[in-house]
Prior knowledge:
Blueprint (H helix, E strand, L loop, with lengths): L1 E4 L5 H13 L3 E6 L4 E6 L16 E5 L19 E3 L2 E3 L5 E5 L6 H14 L3 E3 L17 H14 L2 E5 L6 H7 L2 E4 L7 H7 L6 E4 L6 H12 L5 E5 L16 H9 L4 E3 L1 H5 L5 H10 L4 E6 L13 E2 L1 H20 L9
Parallel strand pairs: 7-8, 7-14, 8-9, 9-10, 10-11, 11-12, 12-13, 13-14, 14-15
Antiparallel strand pairs: 1-3, 1-4, 2-3, 5-6
Helix pairs in contact: 2-3, 2-10, 5-6, 9-10
Amino acid sequence: xxxxxxxxxxxxxxxxxxxxxxxxxxxxxxxxxxxxxxxxxxxxxxxxxxxxxxxxxxxxxxxxxxxxxxxxxxxxxxxxxxxxxxxxxxxxxxxxxxxxxxxxxxxxxxxxxxxxxxxxxxxxxxxxxxxxxxxxxxxxxxxxxxxxxxxxxxxxxxxxxxxxxxxxxxxxxxxxxxxxxxxxxxxxxxxxxxxxxxxxxxxxxxxxxxxxxxxxxxxxxxxxxxxxxxxxxxxxxxxxxxxxxxxxxxxxxxxxxxxxxxxxxxxxxxxxxxxxxxxxxxxxxxxxxxxxxxxxxxxxxxxxxxxxxxxxxxxxxxxxxxxxxxxxxxxxxxxxxxxxxxx
Length: 343
Ligand code: PEP
Ligand code: MN
């Protein structure tokens, strides 16, 4: 349920509504609406049955939230969430670009990738130190050593770091060395991990599960949001009967998520297609569809990559792609072209 306060409601009115909600054993979260304050109520609202919320001073009205997820829903939080990662905004209009190799392989490889990524204008360097590989015999990542190399690359370039965390024990080291923690597709419904990562104090990017519906994905975000409002969603393709591509990139998820949720959404056309040739057209389309940014794999030498070389861009292809992405984003801004229809 959300309680919408009148524009002229006083601080005392808000404090009193919060007190009433909390004394009924529910949680109250105060949010800034376009014109007025909104109080989100979490928990079993039947506990409020004997209290006439709408009659409390300063209350305009109260509205039940129809979805099973609450904190992630646009009904609960009508304004778009903008996540500030130490000065870089995600969801604020400028596309957030996260690029880098699938995995951190060595200092030389990551530094070379970081220079390319930076030259193209990305704000975030990606690279897995803990790799959730299908085969236990594939390269599993450099672990803490990889995190340290990522942190060194941040020092050298000023790029922010996003990297994946795969276990509860990994949360503390990953949070120490990175700016955004990534939950990979394979862990989207690892609820124990989601609950713990919410407590890490840093923004979390939640990738869509390999076979997850949008509803399941937003419910997964809800687990993290119990402790942490700074969640970014990432569409990375879903399993379908198509075998030409590694996954089927569901660009319609951008429009659906924007309607259902206030959270920013990033599109990953590397994992979404599995083919480097398809990254550019899907990246262009994602920006035109209203995505808040892109995640892409870039490698100084994709032919030698220890993982996902076939879906990694070379320097030349990445710089060409970024040139186009910047032009599309600028055109949309200058022409005031907003593809998102919320109502
Ligand atoms: C990744 O981004 O490195 C990754 C493993 O992606 P996903 O979880 O989407 O498969
Ligand atoms: Mn990868």
